[in-house]
Design a protein that fits this description.
The structure holds two protein chains of two kinds. By secondary structure, chain A is α/β, with parallel strands linked by helices. Chain A is built from 13 helices and twelve strands. In chain A, strand 1 and strand 2 form a beta hairpin. The radius of gyration of chain A is 23 Å and the shape is globular. Helix content of chain B is about 65%, strand content about 0%. Chain B has two domains: about 60 residues, no CATH class; about 260 residues, MetI-like fold. Chain B is mainly alpha-helical. In chain B, helix 3 packs across helix 4, helix 4 runs parallel beside helix 7 and helix 4 crosses helix 10. Chain B is built from eleven helices and no strands. The chains are: A alpha/beta, B mainly alpha. At the A-B interface, helix 3, helix 4 and helix 7 of A face helix 8 and helix 9 of B.
Chain lengths: ~375, ~325
Amino acid sequence: MIGRRRLPAPAERYAAATLDGPLLEVTDLRTHFRTDRGVVRAVDGVSFSLEQGRTLGIVGESGSGKTVLSRSIMGLLPKHNVIRQGSVRFEGRELIDAPVDELRDLWGAQMAMVFQDPMTSLNPVMRIGNQITESLLHHLDISKEFARETAVALLRSVGIPEPERRLRQYPHELSGGMRQRVMIAIAIACGPRLLFADEPTTALDVTVQAQILDLLQQQQRERYMAMILVTHDLGVVAGRTDHIAVMYAGQIVEKAPTRTLFTAMKMPYTEALIRSIPKLTDPSHTRLRTIGGRPPNLIAPPKGCRFSPRCPYVQDRCREEEPPLRPAAEPGHEFRCWFPVGTPEGAEALERNRARAGSVRARVAADGPGPEVR
Amino acid sequence: MPERSPDAAPPPTSEEPLRRPVPPGEAIVRTLAADEATRDVPPDAISLRLAAVEAGPETTPERRGLGVAAWLAVVWLLLLGAVALTVPVLPVPDPTVDAEPALARQGPSLSHPFGVDGAGRDVFASVLWGTRVSLFIAVASIVAGFVAGGVIGIVAGYFKGRIGGVLGSAMDVFLAFPQLILALSIVTFLGRTVFNVTLGLAIVATPVLARIARASTLSWSEREFVLAARAQGARHLRIMVREILPNVLPAMFSIALLGVAVVIVAEGGLAIIGAGVKPDIITWGNVIVRGQGELRDASHIVLAPSLVIFLTVLSLNYLGDVVRARFDVRESAL
């Protein structure tokens, strides 16, 4: 068989992990797409690092570049009309300009991905068993029978009953939650050190979501994998990640240890996101809090802070100068804002905006019926 | 369901204004209870009947059999296949050897069910022998076109960039050629042998099948499972063979069945314009050619091969549709 390679023994791999620094180090990663309408800056200068066995949540609205970010890190994007710059170091190895052949040996074996929609990410005409053993046989030098046994064990470990029978079934015979479990089994089959989960629960029933997230967390701990959990739902990452990075318009706007992010966020966008999580303690029929406006056009992002057109704290400076990612008091907490939440400047800015909005409202009332002000 | 004795049945609407929506079942019970003809039927019985109605007719699990017509088509094609394979050992005369010139142009009779042609050859036997070559040409050229078109189409659809562009336009150029003329010139240049006719028709069939394969590949290769396979480290060849090919086959297969039908007709057409297999080799087309000049006096000579071609093409087209229908159902169920 072509390309079958032997993986280093676990001890070797573990040694490699402890010798070097972080497992994954992304520095100033940019991923732009050339389109007919202009260059779309889907990922625009993202930096972070991830230690072995740790979990990072990447949160953002649709179109904030979080999916592109994860695919760009893995190198899964097409080459054509894609500009990819910066640095992605995996176990100290630079991936940005690595040849595809080299990446292919990493894919599945060292880094794997669980995709969003389990309905479309399994091949409809291939039996479950073959889909799992495929990459086992590809990456590891093992016999077919051993691959099959491994597949059974994998299915059992992701909580699929009657794994022997499932191996012979086709994807359409399984429910969405089951299929996602199969996807997870496929992704972890070769024991990757880094697992990307790209909105792994978005396409699933709410009741199944928690199960899948628990499963991912359990597998991540048992196998000592690092995991990047991409989601638009802060509730998903809340209890399950070590760090969270909030993305907005292709940039990380705030990055903090999970608890800090929820209790002492600095970026108004993060605050707005957290506020928009419906609370169980709210009386029923409470209006959901939303963030007004829509994400910016990534072809021509707004000048200054990219969140400024939607920000309740916005000041003139925000519209002119782009805030850099700067450290907060706590180590590991960084944010992009001139008037951060929970600081005197921030409070002042918010107050000023409220006063101005109040005076506009008053003026409109005095002028009688005029154009509606929201 | 409310308990109510038939006699005490209130008028359906007057007492209870339509303040709350009445479930349809209850409305029927009331109507029937108020009706003279059904007044004596106890309401329980009505409710039972009603429950049966609401449950719908007894549902048997839906069977997706092929249907009678499709089975007839399959039987016909199997019969042809059997004939093609066994004709040398079947108790039919070899028309090239056992000609009876004395009987030339004789109409159908018991010993010659489809009559005799101008050279005294039995038409029925000719058609049976013709099946061999005609089916071989049709199937072989489509199989060759299927393989070549499949490879070209999947490669062109998978590598969308330069390779796909070049292959796609090459296929378009081939498609733009008048197809019969293309086949005709190939046969004319290379000689009127069975192999060359097959080759010519295969070259005509390739771009058609390549187009289907390419279109199908374009849509399948965008699916997430292809990306997922890539993310697991699968190589291009593996993705094309393992992930895309099995999904592309049904579409190609349904077109290929139609293709066999088209090729059967094309073989006849080539024979008639004198660019088919040499006349001394019996094909359906060549049998028709024999009767062509004597259509007025001995139309029965053309009848048998035409009928066989008609039934075969009909069967293939019908089966092609069946395959396509099934394939569509499966795709929409994903």
